[in-house]
């Protein structure tokens, strides 16, 4: 099926698709929508940015609105007919926006009950009759234990971005939620990668489901341009600052592996006069959401984050991803670069590559070379190890000197270089 009308969707849904200028289904949509509309359980594994949310949202809205049109509206309070599970509040709010767009013409009610919002707010959200519950697993378990929600009328249960539901008890929670729904309802699971948790779910809850894998799953999209910049002597900053000075269409997400690395990058940028915001764990949730909003609306063009921003966030204007520190796992890399080049748009990813990143780079480039083969990139034409020029080392931000620490000066020897240069050399190793 090459267009949405061929799926047999309601006219109101086709109207919204046209208004949103969405005309051609993606690969995962072509494979999964007909199966979901026929009531089959589905596991969909597809690359980031391939339209997975719309893949389940369209059949779900079609089914629920058709029930209402046939004289079977929802009548009971706190008794939804569909449940969509999401791993985090941020992703839940993102999915809610997709549903809001399509329920403008197809009048159905979507209610969020997400971790991170107060329990009182969740209870208010589900207090009346509505069709679709959007929930995080932990919050839904709390509501079920308090007998504040009834899943006996659920007709379909969806697990979105399942590979991000990393809690060890997630599979147990998922089984409990499924048990609270009617038997043999269609289940849907969507994921960008097959993590251990996803594999366990596929082997248990989804043993009878149709498993669909797009050709691009486990790979980067074709509209993504990748550049690998060789980091010599561990000095990332000179390369990074050159990148910051190059114009780019849209925003930039800079990824690091730890909160401490993010903080250091942000401080160095701010000291150099570059505007940026942080998005990482161990931040005040309101501050994190404010920072994301500033980046989303273009008030700030650079977002510095851990892998927290790598999974699921749909930020339409991201034109570039910079891996200041590369992850060790290919799965995490694919999630990071999936923040750009979404829905057919072009994007750029730039990797700052040190020698210890070569095993990952060998996998990314996929040309049969080993990490050992790639070591030649760190050598000159004579086979000698490359080193950074002295003037480039001076451009590296130095750590502040602790004024309380005693500065030892060996007697009888000439005065050494300034402490800032000493620290700069130390930080470059």
Quick one: biggest sheet?
A: 7 strands, parallel
What is the gyration radius calculated from CA atoms? 25 Å
At the fold tier of CATH, the topology name of the largest domain is: Rossmann fold
User: Class of the largest domain, according to the CATH hierarchy?
Assistant: Alpha Beta
CATH level-4 homologous superfamily of the largest domain: P-loop containing nucleotide triphosphate hydrolases
Contiguous helical run count: 16
Strand arrangement within the widest β-sheet reads 3-4-2-5-6-1-7
Distance between the termini: 56 Å
Indicate the overall shape: elongated
Going by helix content, strand content and strand pairing, the class is alpha/beta
Secondary-structure element pattern, one letter each: HHEHEHEHEHEHEHEEHEHEHEEHEHHHH
Examine the secondary-structure arrangement and name the CATH architecture of the largest domain: 3-Layer(aba) Sandwich
Low-pLDDT stretches: 400-429
- Mean pLDDT, all residues: 87
Share of helix, binned: 25-40%
In percent, how much strand structure appears in the residues? Answer: 5-15%
Number of strands: 13
Write down the domain tally: 2
